[in-house]
Amino acid sequence: MNEAIKTEQSALLNFVLAEADDALILGQRLIEWCYSAPYLEEDLAISNVCLDYLGRANNFYEYASELDTRKRSADQLAMLRDSREFSNLLIHELPIGDFAFTMARQFVLDVFYVEYLAVLMDSTDDRIAGIAAKSAKECDYHLRRSREWILRLGDGTEESHTRLQNGLNELWGYIPELFMQSEAEKQLMAQGVCADRAALQPAWDACVNEVLEQATLTRPDVSWKVSGGREGIHTETHGYLLADMQFLQRAYPGQQW
Amino acid sequence: MTHFELSDAELEQRFQQRIDDEQKIEPKDWMPAAYRKNLIRQISQHAHSEVIGMQPEGNWLSRAPTLQRKMILLAKVQDEGGHGLYLYSAAETLGASREEMVDALHEGRAKYASIFNYPTLTWADIGTIGWLVDGAAIVNQISLQRTSYGPYARAMVRICKEESFHQRQGYESLIALVNGSDEQKAMAQDALNRWWWPSLMMFGPHDADSAHSGQSMKWKIKRKSNDSLRQDFVDQTVPQADFLGLHIPDEELKWNEERGHYDFGEIDWEEFARVVNGDGMCNRDRVRHHKKAQDDGAWVRDALRAYEQKKRANAEKAA
After folding, report:
1. What's this model's pTM, rounded to 2 decimal places?
2. Predicted complex ipTM
3. Where are the domains positioned within chain A?
4. B7 touches A: beta carbon within 8 Å
5. What is the distance between the alpha carbons of residues B197 and B170, in angstroms, rounded to a whole number?
6. Which CATH code for domain A3-251?
7. Which of B67, B120, B173, B177 should we substitute to test contact with A (largest number of A Cβ atoms within 10 Å)?
8. B108 — alpha (psi -120 to 50), left (phi > 0) or beta?
9. Is it the case that residue A211 has pLDDT exceeding 90?
10. b (16+ CB within 10 A) / e for B72-87
């Protein structure tokens, strides 16, 4: 195989894996709410969102498995890579915090993914376009829900307002990474396989600013930002998340479940 | 003819006649206070069981071995929560509020299925719960599809469909284990050893010792006795264990040609009483967790109410 094609294939695999990792790691976090939300209806609603993310992860891992020259299965990709090989963006892996932090994260991600998936649906890669189209429909619903929560908590009580504002402040420095192009994405841009993340920022800003204002919240003005997820540089919580998630596959190697 | 022209005795007689004629009782119909109370007790206990049952199974969500198993388990735990919701709604049609019912759970006045006081220690417990606990629940709930209170009966129809699905999924995940490594087979056998007897206990005390059974049968809240449901469960489950190649931990278990049923050993009723009365491994944790989630979420529910009030006030101002 010629080198250029090889590099392109490995860029595609890296890109698809990153998409899968983002979805799986957030799904794994959301699981923690499934019987611990503020009331039963919310247990069910968060579980729905979580299922969508796990489904999205599964679809991307299946595709990654087909692209993988080492022929690893979707489950092997999810359950047998270590933290340095996981390329999820950091915002997805942060611990769930309180309900305000969780909803703040869902909201900023939902606004991002509505824009992002709308572009990815037009990917020149049919598989990616297909997964994005399915996820986009789910994401419209996610955003309707999280937007409503931002309004309720922001303009609810003093306590809910404070908690949500704190949640946003804690989150804010992880957001710039959403708009950064990975090495793989830079290589794939020319063929129209992936989206231009930086180009999504104005639409994201407009939507987030509008909702925050309506919810009587202040857009955080923080001087810090952190990145590294795409290169496998993670927060210290990431290893524990994997240790938990991968326990059975690690303890009983090579078995069918 | 209006109700107040009839004496209580006449009303009760008419009520019983409707039950005997297999007519469903609906929320606005007259019913004896004890019928209402008995139903609220049973339906809320059933609802609490669904909701508390989310915990032992949810305990393995983060560690499910494959993506598919993780999604299947999450969908199942979510379904159980949904069953809790229908059942709370069914109890609400009798005038009980969800808050009162949940308070009763937290204060130990309302019970839930005692089997959820046992810990889920390995992945095989998840398949085994699906197979045995959902299996036992289905045997009970199929008979409750014909219960005399309409909203409860209708909730059961929907719940049974989903439970059957869960039972098949649980059984199917055990098939994977018994066809796997020696360690996986041992894991499945160990799970069966621990869950078999608690599953039989799910049907409650022997008919002769059952506190609420007589009146419940007469009112057709219950349609089959504890012992006969338990027998149905054993009869349907033994061949399933055989198919898995797993050994049921009961040396007295054998087919009785004459009765056309399996004979089985005596339940350890002391253990049953011990766990029901609070000395199970997880009794304290289950209620504490439920209460903690509720307490931690209080500010969220307050915010929701405050926001709705503001919205209403603004709408009135605009009007």
Report:
1. 0.96
2. 0.96
3. 3-251
4. no
5. 18
6. 1.20.1260.10
7. B67
8. left
9. yes
10. bbbbbbbbbbbbbbbb
